Write the structure tokens for this entry.
Amino acid sequence: MSSPTQAEIAADADVYRTVLREWLEEGHADAWRDSYQYDIEASIKNNGKLVKLLFESGVGAYGWPVEAGALGGGSLHLATLFDELSRRGIPIPEHYGVLTTLGPPLVRYAPELAKLYLAAFLRGEEWWGQSFSEPEAGSDMASLRCRATPVDGGYRVNGQKIWTSHGVGAKKIVLLARTGTPESRHRGLTLFLIDSDTPGLEIRPIALANGRNELAEVFFDDVFVPTERRIGAEDEGWAIAMYLLQFERGLWAWLRAGVLMNRLGELARTVEPTDAAKARIGELYLDVAALRARAAETAKELADNGEVGPGASVDKLLLGAAEVGMLNAARELLGDTFLYGDTADRWREEWWWSRTTTIYGGAAEAQRQIIADRVLNLPKEPRK
Ligand SMILES: Cc1cc2nc3c(=O)[nH]c(=O)nc-3n(C[C@H](O)[C@H](O)[C@H](O)COP(=O)(O)OP(=O)(O)OC[C@H]3O[C@@H](n4cnc5c(N)ncnc54)[C@H](O)[C@@H]3O)c2cc1C
């Protein structure tokens, strides 16, 4: 039988899975199997080589439009890639987490920018940061103050951002800034794509409790951004950010579900198989399986309709519960292995990381609020 064409692979994620499996079974990515680096910069560098290999061989170039330098396909292709990598214990490069969040809004709201810049990210040659949160604007994103003031040919940006994931080393920053009046709340926000080496822009690392420099502060001191670097229209930033968050909550949950299933397998192989341990692992399996089932539906909906709306908050909650539950169990069941063994660094780092899953992408309390108001349409609480 002849090999499927690019168009056939792009049109059908099952065909893509077959092609991807064949490629992986030939051993091309085996050097990365079970690899892990505590140092986040080293990890990004090493995994960037895998992104490049996947893209240049073709199998990692699906899930993105041809116009952006890729081979076509959509969310289901990305979901398939994450699934096949994690099934084999191959790390899902950090790049994909950021790409699945920042790529879709760029493709939809700024196709010209996607055409010019997305390919370097897809090839693993650079990664970008997402700078929305501020020291006093996290859950309440509509209160952000970093300002982009219109000037001749573009905007001047002044202000501060915080908690930008993988901000250190990011080549570009996707910035959400205020263009309206201070009182305009969600109506006065605009999104930009900014080169991190623009004069006046400074990135400072923040180490997480696990010791990794995963986050960063970003400072803007009169940074000039040309109008062509705006993503969408002026003051349209809130709608685009909401579009983006569906991917950050939905497709990311699917990505993490694959990783968690793999780590659960490792946990099951490592712990002493007492009845209590087996029962606990069985419960964790159900949590991760529920997360996978839900996130699979979300990935399908994103592929069919391009959006899922506020329902992605459910995925985010399930992810938080599964990840925190699993790493708490690892800490209790692994005993000395968690504290001192050969794999202790990794388990402990993952335990610390799991504390963040109920915060990033919108804190769990905020997700419950969204579900109550916008999914279940519950009546508002009476004012006290
Ligand atoms: C690992 C990690 C990665 C991150 N990556 C990024 C990134 O790349 N880009 C970016 O822009 N941001 C990023 N963030 C920031 C993240 O989006 C914010 O931390 C999050 O939105 C919460 O905001 P906050 O930290 O200001 O907490 P706050 O909003 O101050 O919340 C503090 C507490 O109060 C609760 N709370 C707040 N409002 C309500 C309410 N209305 N009802 C009930 N409870 C409420 C919260 O749930 C939380 O428990 C990241 C955070 C982490 C931990």
About this structure: The domain at 129-235 is CATH 2.40.110.10 (Butyryl-CoA Dehydrogenase, subunit A; domain 2). The two ends are 70 Å apart (CA to CA). The chain has three domains: 6-126, 129-235, 238-375. The chain has a mean pLDDT of 95.
